[in-house]
Amino acid sequence: MQFKDIVGHAALKQSMIKTINEERISHAQMFLGAEGSGALPIALAYIQYLFCTNKGETDSCGKCSQCHRISKLTHPDVHFVYPVALSKEKGVEKSSDLFREFTEVFLNDPYLSLADWMDFIGAENKQPTIAVEESKDILHKMSLMAMEGSYKTMIIWMPEKMNLSTANKLLKVLEEPPDKTLFILVSESSQMLATILSRTQLTKVLRCEESELTEALIEHHGLPLETATAIAKACEGNYRLAQMMVKGEVDAEFNMQRFQTWMRICLNLDGLKLSEWINEVASIGREKQKQFIAFAIKTIRQSILLGLNYPSGINPADADFLNKFSPFINYENGAQIAEELNNAYYAIERNAHTKILFMSVSIKIHNYFPQRKKSA
Ligand SMILES: [Zn+2]
């Protein structure tokens, strides 16, 4: 993982490079960033730069043996801890029991969310946990000599999922770290034991800038400028959500039909049709639901812009529907609906009950539509 693989964050990358080159490396760090900000890939790029034997001014070389093994997650001094779904049946009690799976999913998409990970290991209905068995493993790995004579490092992803006894054991290591160790805790939530927070150096990983996202969507996904701009505007700095929107584009025609049906039902709030529609959406699975929601957010934003006489990134095949639909959407209710959809996206991530969720969102959307036009 090189810094160049990460969307945006130019200033943060520079400051990380500076601290490494000046050898001001805190042994316990906390990278705090929302989903889609890239905190996890940044942590790995940081370690790769630290280890690289042929560092450049702006990035690791990406070619030396250190870089090569770190980017494949096979370096013996770079360890990972992440939540798992504990299972006696499958013999899963700690991260290393699922390292092959983690490697596969991370290499496929370093911007993965916790829900993506839990889906991947078939544990979407289980609690993600970093349990006490893990702490023994952490202590063991970090007390060994570094294989390559440099740092021993450990990235702990989602430390907020540690239970109390794991956290307390970790705390002891953070207080008296073995020589040449580096812990990077990568968290989405500052709701963590104050004692742990107080022993780590905090780096905030902000959401990506709109312009940075637009650029990345053009470069990595080959989108035309208009579509990339529309998606970047709609996803509010979350690159993960942006990727979902790009995937939604793959099924755009299908998602558009589904969206049109939904909006017609919401407009008149026909209970029977709504429950049929919800049953259908409930059956497509969480990943596709997220893609659909991402698509819906983008379409609502397009409707707002169309209403303001600023059409952006509209597929000609959808123009007819959007022209009829946009009078129902103004800047205010459009923003409210987009926010509801955004909340729904995160609720699906957090494993909400799909049918109840879509029912409640549908009613809210109905209420956001202008009353006098409902018979249209
Ligand atoms: Zn290198």
Features:
binds zinc ion; alpha/beta; 2 domains; Rossmann fold
In order across it, which strands form the biggest sheet? 2-3-4-1-5
Query: Kindly state the mean pLDDT as a whole number?
Result: 90
From the 3D coordinates, which CATH architecture of the largest domain would you assign?
A: 3-Layer(aba) Sandwich
Contiguous runs where pLDDT drops below 50 for at least 5 residues: none
N→C terminal distance: 53 Å
What coarse outline follows from CA principal-axis ratios?
globular
Largest sheet: 5 strands, parallel
User: Class of the largest domain in CATH?
Assistant: Alpha Beta
CATH fold-level assignment of the largest domain:
Rossmann fold
Number of helices: 17
Q: What is the H level of CATH, i.e. the homologous superfamily of the largest domain?
A: P-loop containing nucleotide triphosphate hydrolases
Q: Report the strand count.
A: 5
- H-E order: HEHHEHHHEHEHEHHHHHHHHH
User: Which ligands occur here?
Assistant: zinc ion
Helix content: 40-55%
What number of structural domains do the residues give?
Answer: 2
Structural category? alpha/beta
Percent range for β-strand residues:
5-15%
Radius of gyration: 23 Å
